[in-house]
């Protein structure tokens, strides 16, 4: 039986709210890797460009295919495409079979006793853990694809008329992803709980983009974590459980997006819909450039701009700073992250932003407002992370970067003074959220 692996390149050709050159460049590298892997086992990757449904149906007709096999998508756009594909295929007598792949448990598999979607993570995770997890599937060792089928060339950023990607983006492809997984299992997992919050060291898995693009299966990653925990010390078991919980958070946010797709445009908590965000747009631009005068915020933003990656701890710090210090709409930051991040998983990004803003599912209470200075003191007290990304502060003693400078002063001549006073901004945030629902 012939199998035709196909990928339909999007047809848009300008910068987009939900993606950008970093992620598209990584995608291009992944497609090149996939093409090579398929060729090694006798297959070919067929590339077309345009409307995904129209191109798939045209390819199926052209090759006289009897069925189209797809993996299900958790986001509203993918969901709509699946519905369109099923209808279009039915009209021409082609079977469509879709499968679970992005998650261990998806859509409506993890529900409350009343059959509703969970809104809080802890009970969701307990219900998730009780389910039988799907097995890791075997690797493909042989495939046959007709040589006569036309395929486009592998894409470049020029395919979408995008500017160059950041210079420090992570290596694409399954081989690189598997090395990252092996390295994390060998050296990082058992220390994860102690190191995961320190942005100045390589204490996280760095697998988010690999799960996002399907270079690694969530089933395999979870199985490897479970296997490793069986032979680990008590502290290693704690670390493994902590990392496993992050995989469950990923699926929680995907299920939230599946049941409440409006979260991409509205606050998950209806109480905060229509809330005012009175911040200044010029401060958003300073935040984007990493020029706020808050060193840990600026270091994180420059890391994002230069590499397409941001550490998990600093994602929370920068998001909470934008919403609760600068009083700017979380949707601005959500979109900016999606344009810059290589991983850019839409459900997790939205969930993280709404969590930080205090508007989301199981979100941080609105009165939980991280202080960037105390966060620096706790997680980057030696300023290793700050000095890596802010060269203008490399000669400043670390202790000076853990507290705000005296009013009107700078920590260095070529570095800006803080654009807001954190204590005053916090009071404003408490008033803004407190006024919601009171008519004030």
List strands and helices in order, with pairings.
Blueprint: E1 6-9, H1 21-40, E2 46-49, H2 52-62, E3 67-71, H3 76-91, E4 95-99, H4 121-130, H5 174-188, H6 192-195, H7 208-212, H8 218-230, H9 234-259, H10 281-289, H11 295-307, H12 312-324, H13 330-340, H14 346-357, H15 372-379, H16 384-389, H17 422-435
Parallel strand pairs: 1-2, 3-4
Helix pairs in contact: 2-3, 4-9, 8-9, 9-14, 11-12, 12-14, 13-14
Description:
The protein has 440 residues and is mostly helical. It folds into 3 domains: 6-99, Rossmann fold; 104-135 and 175-259, Serine Threonine Protein Phosphatase 5, Tetratricopeptide repeat, CATH 1.25.40; 270-435, DNA Cyclobutane Dipyrimidine Photolyase, subunit A, domain 3 (Orthogonal Bundle). It contains 17 helices and 4 strands. The relative contact order is 0.11.
Alpha-carbon Rg, integer = 23 Å
**Count of extended strands:** 4
The name CATH uses for the topology of the largest domain is: DNA Cyclobutane Dipyrimidine Photolyase, subunit A, domain 3
Please identify the top-level CATH class of the largest domain. Mainly Alpha
Which stretches are poorly predicted, pLDDT < 50 over at least 5 residues?
Answer: none
Q: Order of strands in the sheet with the most strands?
A: 1-2
What is the architecture of the largest domain at the second tier of CATH?
A: Orthogonal Bundle
What percent strand?
under 5%
The CATH homologous superfamily of the largest domain corresponds to: DNA Cyclobutane Dipyrimidine Photolyase, subunit A, domain 3
Count every helix, treating DSSP H or I runs of 4 or more residues as helices: 17
The overall pLDDT average reads 95
SSE order, one letter for each helix or strand:
EHEHEHEHHHHHHHHHHHHHH
User: Could you say which structural class the secondary elements and strand pairing correspond to?
Assistant: mainly alpha
Counted up, domains total 3
The main β sheet shows up as: 2 strands, parallel
What is the first-to-last residue Cα distance? 68 Å
Shape: globular
Q: Share of helix among residues?
A: 40-55%
